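Collaborator request log, item 7. Partner lab (contact: R.S.) asked for a structural prediction of Phytoene dehydrogenase to inform their binding assays.
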Amino acid sequence: MPQIGLVSAVNLRVQGSSAYLWSSRSSSLGTESRDGCLQRNSLCFAGSESMGHKLKIRTPHATTRRLVKDLGPLKVVCIDYPRPELDNTVNYLEAAFLSSTFRASPRPTKPLEIVIAGAGLGGLSTAKYLADAGHKPILLEARDVLGGKVAAWKDDDGDWYETGLHIFFGAYPNIQNLFGELGINDRLQWKEHSMIFAMPSKPGEFSRFDFSEALPAPLNGILAILKNNEMLTWPEKVKFAIGLLPAMLGGQSYVEAQDGISVKDWMRKQGVPDRVTDEVFIAMSKALNFINPDELSMQCILIALNRFLQEKHGSKMAFLDGNPPERLCMPIVEHIESKGGQVRLNSRIKKIELNEDGSVKSFILSDGSAIEGDAFVFAAPVDIFKLLLPEDWKEIPYFQKLEKLVGVPVINVHIWFDRKLKNTYDHLLFSRSSLLSVYADMSVTCKEYYNPNQSMLELVFAPAEEWISRSDSEIIDATMKELATLFPDEISADQSKAKILKYHVVKTPRSVYKTVPGCEPCRPLQRSPIEGFYLAGDYTKQKYLASMEGAVLSGKLCAQAIVQDYELLVGRSQKKLSEAITS
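Returned to partner:
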């Protein structure tokens, strides 16, 4: 079978007369040099154990001895997996068709000027697709950085630290289309099709769910679950499968009806043992929404399971190859500006100014300037919008329902160590600890952050409600205690083993909306009851809930509503102009 891939991170170790390569999807790596190191497309460093699948590469015995003597017994070569075949899936084609409608729509005789607040993925997506339809978006961002919940910053050493640990799934069709439309598919570093969980009862060990490439969905997912005997017993698997039957048979209508019940309560109602929740769904709940299963709506879990089990590559993960503002957001900005749109940083909205009829007149910025347009979009987080909600709108049911939508606190931790950690993978890892959600060694998983000598762990600290007001040092101390369990031979809480070189702690007091039972009816459509005013963001109504995919889809749906309202909006602008002339 031909092996195709890109440079990223894999482990290579020499054992006897064989070298073992951690990957079953390597690229054509070139020829071996006389010292046993691959000559082309190889990134090598000492001090890491091999994990995962083994592919034997024969080396001469003398070469092996010289390699061990000169470079130490361990080397790491970095390789990514090829992009999965997503383009012919139903969801990808559906997303592609929606994208095409903007490019194919009749060119407007008078392009609309649409003022958009918030340059996160929701606002960027709205602006991008409006520009594709021939309109002129004016995108305003309060901060000096793009991305919203995917924002990142560079420190004085030139290292990046991010708002969150962002994973791009195969089940994200609108994001996958967006990358393709921008010509940046090569910026996603795809990993092996696995889900890897730490084993708290066996410190330093992991349990894997490996999805077969040879089987279609849902068989590949079912086999992955059946083959894992470390986390769930056979009786637990059977009871879990029986409990899931209503969701599998009932389809989307059943999934949506489970919004009113928590994960924990649903599991008990279906006769699923509590240990299944503890072993699998605490980690999954924290990864999806930063909260535990006694709080999370079961609808959220079922939507994820539906995508992961019904799409062959749905649960396959990719990392962005660098920092999100430059590697993802800037290409969107360049696309918007190439079509006549504008993106302005440091443009914080202070007030939504209304006309006498209750419609939006302008967005007033913190410097006192007023930005007017033919239509207005608020694409910042729901908590910010509620603070700026005009008094005249507060009794309207559409806006009243937003009160139940509240952002969940989350903390993202970055720790640079003085050495290369061995007990890790080139992948996202579920910590299954009480304080941490997921983590990754970004010095291995991400090209821009690659470091052959030192590890940088990026970790999601969740649930974070009790920790968001604590000091960075307290958070780091607590994190190190958890890491001592994940890396028992390499990390200790007192730093007597691996030493911290530096750290960054990014606190987001209000992140994605907290997906608790009963939230679904409160999520607003993108078109508001106020003519000419729209909402975008992952909290608005779309089928991917609080996620990057949800944010991008919300922007497309918002842009679609504006394009559909073109004649109405042009008429409003002409009426406004006529009134200004006569007055």
